[in-house]
Amino acid sequence: MRRNLVLGGTLTALFALLALLSFVWTPHDVTALDIGGKLAPSSAEHWLGTDHFGRDMASMLMVGARISIAVALAAVGFGMALGVPLGLLAAARRGGLVDEVVMRGNDLVFAFPSLVIAILITAVFGPSVWNAILAIGIFNTPVFARVTRGAALSLWTLDYILAARVAGKGMLRISAEHILPNIANLLVVQATIQFAVGIIIEAGLSYVGLGAQPPTPSWGRMLAESQTMISFAPTLALYPGLAIVTMVLGLNLLGDGLRDALDPRMQRVRA
Question: pLDDT tens per residue, the chain (271 residues)?
């Protein structure tokens, strides 16, 4: 029994189900304000209480899960769509001009943290969910390019790749038919890790006002709005904080479990 895989998959699936459920049902309307019922404690009507505007916390956490998962998932897809082909191309042209250009371009992107990239993008286009996806996706691209290149380089010297080259297959065809399928398990694990990183970055961007904009709930903005009320309403920060920590923990455990399941060399005896 791979405990990490089971526990991580369960936590991740739970948040995914809550996010999907929020499309069709939430306990209350997340945009409805009830100033008279602000900062209400947990009750049968408001399971996790209300915030300083009287909005239902449980409903906001559900919709916030939808936003965080959607942004992180789209950003990972963006990063893979650009980074994996670049990594394969760099490995196929290893030591040449193309390899050098791709890797130095990766170094350039790595020099700018995702928050800086987001600030640059929002300075031009304004803050929004789409610009947060773009910023995180650009940050993910060199990660996938490096992982893909490193894994592909170790395969180019193997006998079956040499046989494919002797058979007349071109480098791009070999990359698509032989290299990519054999590093797919590594990319899946890396995608899981970047998914968790994307959740954290999205929360950070929303915290500073560069992610989802009001009235759309976001875990990061819920934390930002609660910081001045921690002394007398700590649950306003506790709930979104626990949601972020639990979601990231679940994804990290899932990634660890997938690594062990997909790569027998990484299996280890667990107590």
Answer: 488 899 999 999 999 999 999 999 999 999 888 888 899 999 999 999 999 999 999 999 999 999 999 999 999 999 999 999 999 999 998 888 989 999 999 989 888 877 788 788 877 888 889 999 999 999 999 999 999 999 999 898 888 888 988 888 888 899 999 999 999 999 999 999 999 999 999 999 999 888 888 888 999 999 999 998 998 899 999 999 999 999 999 999 999 899 888 765 555 444 4
Phi–psi pair at 2, nearest 5 degrees? -90, 95
pTM of the model: 0.91
SS3 169: coil
147 is a domain residue? yes
Q: Say whether the peptide bond before residue 27 is cis (omega within 30 degrees of 0).
A: no
Give the count of domains, the chain.
1
Q: Domain range spanning residue 29?
A: 3-266
